[in-house]
Design a protein that fits this description.
mainly alpha; 0% strand; elongated
Length: 74
């Protein structure tokens, strides 16, 4: 264990930044990027889900506000 710590040199801040950058670029090269069609299809799915959720939340908000209005005016 002590030998491993002795072998490990303390890297300068520049060396650590360069190692981080190399590792980051290496990981980004492994990524499978979507095609334009796949990206557009996923964008459409997100937009449809947003519209549906906004309608659902709007209806819930309207329903609860009507319920509160009914309780307060009684």
């Amino acid at each position: 264990m002590a030998q491993k710590q002795q072998k490990r040199k303390k890297l300068s801040i520049f060396q650590r930044i360069m190692r981080y950058w190399r590792e980051t670029v290496g990981e980004l090269r492994k990524v499978t990027w979507p095609t334009s069609k796949e990206a557009w299809d996923m964008t459409k799915v997100v937009l449809v889900v947003m519209v549906i959720m906004s309608i659902v939340l709007g209806l819930l908000d309207f329903g609860f506000s009507q319920l509160i209005r009914l309780l307060v005016t009684v």
